Amino acid sequence: MRDASEALIVIDVQNDFCPGGALAVAGGDEIVAGINALMGGFSIRVLTQDWHPADHASFAANHPGAAPFSVTEMPYGQQVLWPVHCVQGTPGAAFHAKLATDPADLVIRKGFRAAIDSYSAFFENDHATPTGLEGYLRTRGATKLTLVGLATDFCVAYSAIDAAKLGFDVTVRTGLCRAIDLDGSLAKAEAGMRAAGVRLER
Ligand code: VGL
Ligand code: ZN
User: Fold this and answer.
1) What is the pTM of this model?
2) Which of 72, 84, 129, 146 has its CB surrounded by the most CB atoms within 10 Å?
3) Could you report the per-residue pLDDT of 70-112, keeping only the tens digit for each?
4) Contact, 146 vs 202, CB < 8 A?
5) Which residues lie below 8 Å from residue 75, measured CB to CB, with a gap of 6+?
6) Which residue of 10, 12, 131 sits with most ligand 1 atoms within 8 Å of its CB, as the best mutation to test the pocket?
7) Active site residues
8) What radius of gyration, in Å, describes the C-alpha atoms of the chain?
9) CA pair distance 176, 93, nearest whole angstrom
10) CA–CA separation, 68 vs 54, rounded Å?
11) Do the beta carbons of residue 14 and residue 28 sit within 8 Å?
12) CA dist., res. 176 & res. 200, Å (int)
């Protein structure tokens, strides 16, 4: 068992990000068994869940004429327009059936405000609106975080960089993550994580 100051954060291991899902990440389901095995070693375990209303601004379908995976300008900056995914209460938003959810201490949902996306588990995409996860982790005494999940280059990277900026000691286990890799986004995300002081471990 790791020290009580260590937390495992499992990012968005949901059906829509796994093969067959609306925003499928190649090999997204391959990481589930490894994540389940890792969970047993941590005394603080958090799952995040992408959780959008149907009218969410990140969906291309809500922007007439916009193609999925195109980029638009939002009041808070650039935003990729995604296929409709992880709609609240739908099977696509549910965790992968084989993910061990019972051991989780906390499930934190994000992206539930229609006008703003939230890749990071800590802040929405305006980089200012907190999700509350920082307070939870600090009050439980967590200082060292291990991140795994989907997708490496979006929600995992944004969460890892925010966590490092907040002063947590952050490791991303890349072997237990899978990427969307949109126009070089994976290389960019890895460089951004390294620059923020995030440890990348296989
Ligand atoms: C994610 C795109 C849109 C992710 C969530 O979990 O990485 N990516 N929503
Ligand atoms: Zn999303």
Assistant:
1) 0.98
2) 146
3) 999 999 999 999 999 999 999 999 999 999 999 999 999 999 9
4) no
5) none
6) 12
7) 12, 110, 155
8) 16
9) 20
10) 15
11) no
12) 11
Which tokens belong to 103?
């051991």
pLDDT at 138: 98
Torsion of the alpha carbons at 145, 148, 151 and 154, rounded to the nearest 10: 10
Q: Distance from the CA of 92 to the center of ligand 2, in angstroms?
A: 11
Alpha-carbon span 78 to 8, nearest angstrom? 29
The answer, yes or no, to whether any atom of ligand 1 lies below 6 A from the CB of 158, is no
Structure tokens, 156: 């995992």
Which of 9, 23, 59, 81 has the most ligand 1 atoms within 8 A of CB, as the residue to mutate?
Answer: 23
Q: Is the CB of 12 under 6 A from ligand 1?
A: yes
CB-facing half-sphere around the CA of 32: CA atoms within 13 A: 17
Q: How far apart are CA 168 and CA 184, in angstroms?
A: 27
* pLDDT single digits (tens) 2-61: 999 999 999 999 999 999 999 999 999 999 999 999 999 999 999 999 999 999 999 999
Q: Which two tokens stand for residue 64?
A: 């007439």
Q: How confident is the model at residue 174 (pLDDT cuts 50, 70, 90)?
A: very high
Whole-number pLDDT of residue 143: 98
Q: What residue owns the CA closest to ligand 1's atom 4?
A: 155
As a whole number of angstroms, the distance between CA 196 and CA 147 comes to 15
Distance 155 CA to ligand 1 centre (A): 5
